[in-house]
Amino acid sequence: MPAPSRASPSVTKFRAHSDAFSVEPSIRAQAGRWLKEEVVKAPWVPVLHPSPLRMKGLGVFTLLGHPLFWWLWGRALPQPYENLALRLLTAALGLLLMSPRIFNDPASRLSGQVFSAVIWLELPFLFSWMYLCNGGNSVWLASVAAMILTYYFVTDWRIATLGLLLAAVGARALFELVGPAAPPIPTPVALANTVVIAFCVSMGMLLGVSSANLRREHLAHTLATMGIMAHELRTPLATMALIGDAMRGAADTCPPTSRGTLEKLAERLHMLVRNMNHQIDMQIANARLLRLPGHKDAISAADLVRSTVFNYPFRSSRERESVRLQVRRDFQFAGSEALFGQVLDNLLKNALRSMAAAGTLLQPGDVQIEVDAAGKHGRIRVADRGVGIDPQLQPRIFEPFFSTNRGTGHGLGLAFSHRVVQRSGGHIRVESEPGRGATFTIELPLLA
Fold first, then answer.
1. Which of 70, 242, 327, 401 has CA atoms 20 to 30 A from the CA of 40?
2. pLDDT tens digits along 325-347
3. What is the pTM of this model?
């Protein structure tokens, strides 16, 4: 039997290099996709799990915690360096988190900015400063380690990583300029401390990335399921439309006394199909919460509102007449016309649903839509005279899957609207009292 052939060492080496060359681009491509999805495209979330209670709780802890730790490290268990003025100044930042404008809307852009600034100052910056002023002793090494994990727990992992880097550089620069006299940290201690801190940072990043990815995957799977279910409803609706056509055809062969009844029933059936198809379109659009297009058009606010109202599938002429549009001053803004049309659809649907829940006969002007501009911002207001929204629920209405209408609401419309408005550099807010209706205001920067 002939001996099996063997490749020469040069051929084997060439094959190994070829395999490595074919695998390496794939690894680079996967890494590039991961960086793009996780670091660039994924939205930053300054406040993880935002809620009024969480915001106020952090404010109270900031206000009371720093004086307590001043007493602990300055009196009960004295450390080389403590500063009462610095502690009181940091504690006062807690009042910002306890401000009604901040904790009432914890998911807003302003709340996110204030939260990020306060948490950065009281966690990575202050702790880095205290670590340096205390010579990197064991108490402040443990404190910094706990701070790092806490920082990654309360905010987006990218914000936390950037914040830690900026705090370390800023605190070091300030310490060199105006820091108190502190013993130098021995090199072996500095190296050991660096290893501990690096371990905490790496674990914080790992947990932050995995948690953020898990949240987005759960949301994406749920939204995809809702979109599929909405698509599946098209089939029975198409059958209903065919039945309506058959009823109209049959009406031609019926006696005059029955013809009118059949035609009315067929028309009502077709109107129901149109309305349901419109609702399906809305739900499919809302289910694209995480996949909003990036392109922007120049949009006229007045034209957008007029088109939305004209195309809305009102269930009756009285419902259509209840909507009043007032254009005080038109303005242009940058955004997606299709997405903003969906935003106004959501607000108009909610207003009409609120009026229906109030149980009163619709009157002209029960739903008011106003377009106006002042300074550098334009405003679109949608106001109704419906049942209103409970003050305890208002801070959560822009969260995905949270709905004040537990019977029929899915909680995506306002979350979608909030995301679309934010993508255009604006914000949306609500003012409401139970029994007195609700007013949703969209503020957008004017197109230069």
1. 401
2. 999 999 999 988 888 988 898 89
3. 0.57
